[in-house]
């Protein structure tokens, strides 16, 4: 009975199995059922074939969280509302949110615009008495 790994011959299948278990241990990678000779080979496979940090916007995978975050910054810019904590994928969505959610208040005497009625009224009493 011959060892498939090193071609050494044995008198019984049990002797061959014992030899393989002791001389040629394997390391499994359960994510894809691959088997490797060494932990280092398994880890290299994991690094090469199974990046684990995924972009939430497009699904692209990266090997490090820093690479994923840089990708997100470069590829998927965000647009923040200056009035609240909401973030949008496009400037158009942010602008529509601003119009819908944060109305402006215009001074009828000078066309100045304010974010609150209180600010507009204070302006009117200060500037247009």
From TrEMBL:
Signal peptide: none annotated. SMART domains: ZnF_C2H2. Residues 1-24, 53-76 form the C2H2-type domain. GO terms for cellular component: nucleus. InterPro entries: Znf_C2H2_sf, Znf_C2H2_type. Keywords: Metal-binding, Repeat, Zinc, Zinc-finger. GO terms for molecular function: DNA-binding transcription factor activity, RNA polymerase II-specific; RNA polymerase II transcription regulatory region sequence-specific DNA binding; zinc ion binding. PANTHER family: BLOODY FINGERS-RELATED, KRAB AND ZINC FINGER DOMAIN-CONTAINING. This is C2H2-type domain-containing protein.
């Amino acid at each position: 009975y011959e060892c498939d790994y090193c071609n050494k011959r044995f008198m019984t299948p049990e002797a061959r199995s014992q030899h393989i278990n002791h001389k040629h241990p394997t390391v499994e990678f359960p994510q894809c059922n691959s088997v490797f000779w060494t932990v280092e080979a398994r880890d290299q496979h994991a690094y090469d074939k199974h990046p684990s940090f995924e972009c939430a916007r497009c699904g692209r995978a990266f090997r490090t969280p820093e690479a994923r975050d840089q990708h997100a910054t470069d590829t998927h810019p965000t647009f923040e509302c200056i009035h609240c904590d909401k973030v949008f994928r496009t400037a158009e969505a942010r602008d529509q949110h601003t119009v819908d959610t944060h109305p402006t208040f215009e001074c009828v005497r000078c066309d100045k615009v304010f974010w609150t009625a209180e600010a507009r009224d204070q302006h009117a009493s200060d500037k247009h008495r």
